[in-house]
Amino acid sequence: MPGAATRLASTAALMLALAIGVSGCGTDRMTTGSIARMPSSSLAAMSTTQVHDASVTFGRTYARNPNDKAIAMRYATLLQMDGDASQSLAVVRKLAIAYPKDREVLSAYGKALAANGQFEPALDAVRRAQTPEYPDWRLMSAEGAILDQLGQKDEARQRYRKALELKPNEPSVLSNLGMSYLLDGDLRTAEIYMRDAAKQAGADSRVRQNLALVVGLQGRFAEAEKIAVQELPAAQAEANIAYLRAMLSQQNAWNQIKAQDKKKATN
């Protein structure tokens, strides 16, 4: 039977590991509306309500310009942040038809497929987006995240380390590497990588949320809450604490199930 930490992380890790898709759009040149011009760092700091409101508002912009790459990419990101992974996939799939050779679009398509649990097609899309002569660290990290979901942890970690060779000390990759160990139930090693990620310039709330999760899973709840609210607006801090408590509550439930399983095995 998998460890309780493994089962907990498997439900949350994909969203966290593929969250680099938000930052991957940060260099896009947006031309329509204030939301379109909003940097990815601002998106990461949004509360749940703000993300939902932005997705509704930006959806109207997308409806007027469905084939505009920059608008579609940002709309897909907002939809995924709002928990609508299926609609996000539909937007990116339509974009992939319009831009069949665009590596950024293929990358986003792969991440959207993975967010919907379609891991094999996701892996194919991300690998097709990669070019050996000009390897992209974001694609390497995304490939690693998908491989982790497929249970291929050794290959996943190779991709993360290759991504770090291309982009040393990148917090999103370090956090993904830490999540790989969390998925494997190795909380201490996971914490080492996540702490390294959190101290890097450019580390955002998603990186700190990963660190808070792994600290909380080790029973250090007060420390985990302190990390979860660090340098965040009140609304986002509250959302992070709610998420953390929900995950740790789920962990306690799984621990009870695990204890019951052990009891049955000894009877």
Automatic annotation (TrEMBL):
**Which InterPro entries is this protein grouped with?**
TMTC_O-mannosyltransferase, TPR-like_helical_dom_sf, TPR_rpt, UCP035836
Instruction: List residue spans for each TPR repeat.
Output: 137-170
Q: What keywords are assigned to this protein?
A: TPR repeat
SMART domains reported in the protein's UniProt record: TPR
Write down the Pfam families for this protein, in alphabetical order: TPR_11 (PF13414)
Q: Which domain of life is it from?
A: Bacteria
Q: What is this protein called?
A: Pilus assembly protein TadD
Please spell out the taxonomic lineage of the organism that makes this protein.
Bacteria, Pseudomonadati, Pseudomonadota, Alphaproteobacteria, Hyphomicrobiales
